[in-house]
């Protein structure tokens, strides 16, 4: 599967309607982005069970800002609609392959339990 162009209009549905989504925040002028692009594209062709989406931070500045992107490339991974990885910087192919495997093998019940536990320890929002 080729990469999918993600925009403010479709990113939420892609994340919520697919089991695993990797998102590459990039820009044409960014050298490390151009180096990581072919690695990301190759992975999208090898892992057809995963959605690989790209956000052009120049065209989608509001989306990049709302995602808290301060450095590109930034790679995010979502599993079952939950952000499970976010890191700036281009990854070498073997490291990216390892990350894909880790995201695929996550115990999502444990992840949800950990999130619930963390939320339970937070103070209630003040009115």
UniProtKB/TrEMBL annotation:
It holds the Pfam family Thioredoxin. The keyword Flavoprotein does not apply. One of its GO terms (cellular component) is cytosol. GO terms for molecular function: protein-disulfide reductase activity. It comes from the Bacteria. Residues 1-105 form the Thioredoxin domain. Keywords: Disulfide bond, Electron transport, Redox-active center, Transport. The keyword Transmembrane does not apply. PANTHER family: GEO12009P1, THIOREDOXIN 2. Belongs to the thioredoxin family. This is Thioredoxin. It comes from Leifsonia shinshuensis.
């Amino acid at each position: 599967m080729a990469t999918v162009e993600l925009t403010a209009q479709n990113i939420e549905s892609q994340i919520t309607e697919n089991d695993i989504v990797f998102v590459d925040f990039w820009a044409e002028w960014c050298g490390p982005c151009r180096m990581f692009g072919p690695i990301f594209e190759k992975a999208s062709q090898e892992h057809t069970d995963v959605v690989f989406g790209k956000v052009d931070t120049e065209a989608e500045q509001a989306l990049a800002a709302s995602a808290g992107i301060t450095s590109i490339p930034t790679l995010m991974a979502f599993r079952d609609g939950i952000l499970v990885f976010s890191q700036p910087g281009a990854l070498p192919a073997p490291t990216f392959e390892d990350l894909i495997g880790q995201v695929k093998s996550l115990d999502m019940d444990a992840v949800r339990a950990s999130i619930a536990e963390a939320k339970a320890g937070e103070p209630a929002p003040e009115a």
